[in-house]
Amino acid sequence: MMWLISEMGNPDSQYRAYLDILPGSYPNHPLSWTDEELAETAGTGLDNTSKSIKQLLQKVFEHLSEKLVQVSGTTLQNGTKLIKHKANPSLFPGWSFEKFVWAFQTVNSRSWTVTNENNEKESVLVPLADMLNHAPGAGLGGLSYDKTYFMINATKDYATGDQVFDNYGAKSNFDLLSTYGFVLEDNAYDYMTLQFSLKPSNLVHTIVEPLLKAVE
After folding, report:
1. pLDDT band at 200 (very low <50, low <70, confident <90, very high)
2. Cα(123)–Cα(112) distance, rounded to whole angstroms?
């Protein structure tokens, strides 16, 4: 994320061609919604999840902001006056919480997970590959890669003009919306989370018995 923000602010970045085609914003992503828009999802869990993520991002942003400020001191007769200024201001031009959230949305929705040479999982941005849309059962197989290439293996034939899809996994519409900012109309993996409280004595009568009857 920090690399992405830094490179976006560098007009001479060697990745300029790639950076210029990244979305400038994600209006369909819940982290970009207003409080009024999130309120429309009350009861689904999406509103609370989005608010929790944004609060966590705010804490991380504030922590990083402190690290990006260098403190110098000037001794005066009445004590020490501290003067704060940005360390390496050219490294993160226009540093803001909005850019930080944008970087999170970009990495979270477009990155691929790979295993590095230390056998550790890490997220990488792969030009072109990160443009593949999601479709359950997409004809793509395993990955092969190193520092010089990234190859996605197809498990079906594609004709000229066909759209190549990726499969993001067995995700519900909640997962798709909270991560990528879209839903599927007919999603075989969709489910609904219900939130309620019950007295233990009523659990069998009000929940278990009706469920057993429903599946008979």
Report:
1. low
2. 5
